[in-house]
Amino acid sequence: MSYFGSIGKISYEGKGSDNPLAFKHYNPQEVVLGKTMEDHLRFAIAYWHTFTGTGTDPFGVGTAVRPWDFANPMDTAKARVEANFEFLEKIGVPYYCFHDRDVAPEGSTLQETNKNLDVIADMLEQNMKSSGKKLLWNTANMFTHPRWVHGAGTTSNADVYAYAGAQLKKSLEIGKRLGAENYVFWGGREGYETLLNTDMALELDNLARLFHMCVAYANEIGFDAQFLIEPKPKEPTKHQYDFDAATTIAFLQKYDLQKHFKLNLEANHATLAGHTFDHEIRVAAINGMLGSLDANQGDLLIGWDTDEFPTDLYATTMTMYEVLQAGGIGKGGVNFDAKVRRASFEDEDLFLAHIAGMDSYAWGLKAAAKLIESKALSGFVENRYRSFREGIGADIVAGKASLASLEQYAMQNNPIKNESGRQERLKAIVNEIIFSV
Fold first, then answer.
1. Which distant-in-sequence residues (6+ apart) come within 8 Å of 177 by Cβ?
2. Would you call 122 a catalytic residue per the annotation?
């Protein structure tokens, strides 16, 4: 059965095209800085938004009626697999991602739930073999069901903690079976609402224990995926333990997990943390923790995770500038953790939204490459810090300086002359390059 029968394969037609179902900037085989766009971006489809999302929001029920939705949950799950691979083929994306509960429904017992997951995993495996599509990452949904009301790895209930371990064990096995290149941990409810009822030390210790168990089990079964943690602040828990990149890195370093994990960073989560996406990427990169990206954008006028498709060219340019400066995202990719707006409920909108997002990232990639080739930013930064390459500055960087030597230098009373940071000019240069692509 075809779920998108009226839509053909999406192709690259270039900037002059007026075809809404064509790429204007994303040309997968175009070479940028020595690599194809497809290799730079490693696009992936978010199963949960694309095939399970209905348009529900905090104030209203779903608006989208999909042809793969049936009364029987397992029939729906099987139809979604077919829809997923048809969509991947037509949009020309090599990867997809999923939570375990996205692809298969829960049963009345854990045994039944696992059986459902095995049935769908069989279908996923068969379709991956026939299509050549791959799994960028999978993860476990340990936030939707009421059992997770107090968290999973940070719960106050040992029975819930045990269930979390069992679910993770199965999820890791599914990841290995399907050849997932990464495995993501998102602590949707790993946090607290009030310190009045919280043993923070125990919760963090227990979360680290769970991560160490996962590392041990992955080694035991030979699952060599890159482990990723996805930081997110505030929502749904008021005080999330994985608030942002810096907080998460500190946690990993404290519990000796930094050798096993990198970060899966999301643009909208950066916004909620009061950061920009490029800031989060820079923090991860300079700590050797840049793993993968969830591509979306938030609405700055709305205070929750709106997960909009990325269309802000300034943001995609600076995102790809940071990625290129960091040497790429390795085994990671650019996953569209984005959903069409509630009013965009027709099946065609799924294609139009992904085309917009893919073109925006391709445009950003080309502009970022121009910024690097021109050295417009890097040359300025290098010159700005030139005082640390000679004299007392060189001593500071080499670790030769002491407070006494700094005092001796300062007491020469040489005139101090600061220079402008030229912020406005640099932003104008970025604008000029973006719109010259």
1. 121, 125
2. no
